[in-house]
Amino acid sequence: MSVKNLEQCAAINGSKYEILAIRLLFDEDDGLETPHESTKLLRELLLKHFNIQNKVDILEHLYSKFQKSNIASFTKTMAQHSDDPMIHKLFFDAGEILGKQFVVAAGHLPSDQRAEVNLVLVGSVFKSWNVIKEG
Known about the structure:
Elements: H1 3-14, H2 17-30, H3 40-49, H4 58-62, H5 68-79, H6 85-106, H7 129-132
């Protein structure tokens, strides 16, 4: 697998976790998902971080006023509260997904290069590595 493909894999999937956290709130409210843990703190952090009155207001930040760095910065906010069971689960799940993707990507390397594969983590989401790595 080329380095470029690995970079794209990490970039696309490393940046979506804060969006998955936001989607969880919509899915819960719409009755599509019933989280096992409370989303109360996650919801409060979302409203405060983006200075919005309700979760629907986030759509403006995701579309017309989209700035990847602004959305990604929500990961840092969540990481500061990683002791919250719901937020901890989101980070655990993120780590699990990234781990699976790395194993699959490394499997495409020639067999003589699989014994030791260096992994370079780039992007704001990896500033939260201490809570992602458990997954």
